[in-house]
């Protein structure tokens, strides 16, 4: 028997079957062009149409106002850890960084190379299970921007009560790599949002950069052109150099589906799916443990341990895979287990994981 596989990988992650089938169907002959998208010039009218449609669907799905530019940049989320300071800290070289997980930490470490003065909003060495209360935050009111990561993929922490009102005088820059397109965004609160595509949108290689147009200016002189927002924004169709054409095309296939579904439905489903796994954890009498402050539990990355038993965790990974539930191992830096439940994970897959977890507990406690 072939068992259906559900892929809980943190990214690159699962894509809807219909996207994969469409990509397969188009592989040799896209829309009667006689060639594959992989082989198309990025300057051809065919590819420009593909890219434009992807952009339009993303804009519509996320209700991104016209005053924002959408750039589809190379080199994933990590490039933005440097690109953000290189593009924004040209005159005022001060920035605030809120760090409550490893990606935020990576962002601040990169930014330190370009900034004169970085304020660590909370102690980045105390990151772990919660986000310190806003009243304890240290904020430089003179800083050019305030950077944070909305969902910490490795630790499974998502900020669900960001103090927008208290920070209304700050220019907000946010890494939404692991929770973009999973809930509505109030764009009036942000200057720049970036998100790598390989979790909630499509394949790896692209990073969506949504930037308010008035913030696009000449970056630091050391900035490589491929990291300069201005270079892209000024180029025809925002293609300064060869973009990740095939990835953008597959992102476009998925964005069209997400747009049809609508952001409210996606948001509801994200809560439903993660809730199913948290319920199993909370009703397991301490067999499964998730020690994240409940109000900051991630809807996308559910991290957990099995008692304090590394051997049992290894068995869990192995048995889960035999049941078609793959990539449930935690990140190597923290160990344990993690189910990444992005937009393309069907409810059915999560139901199967929940059932498996209950059965595994019965058999191994
Ligand atoms: N930010 C977050 C929140 C992430 O989860 C990741 C990757 N897992 C990154 C940034 C880095 O993205 P990339 O690997 O595309 O550089």
Automatic annotation (TrEMBL):
It catalyses: 4-(phosphooxy)-L-threonine + 2-oxoglutarate = (R)-3-hydroxy-2-oxo-4-phosphooxybutanoate + L-glutamate; O-phospho-L-serine + 2-oxoglutarate = 3-phosphooxypyruvate + L-glutamate. Keywords: Amino-acid biosynthesis, Aminotransferase, Pyridoxal phosphate, Serine biosynthesis, Transferase. GO terms for cellular component: cytoplasm. Pathway: Amino-acid biosynthesis; L-serine biosynthesis; L-serine from 3-phospho-D-glycerate: step 2/3. PANTHER family: PHOSPHOSERINE AMINOTRANSFERASE. Belongs to the class-V pyridoxal-phosphate-dependent aminotransferase family. SerC subfamily. NCBIfam families: PRK05355.1, serC_1. This is phosphoserine transaminase. It comes from Euplotes crassus.
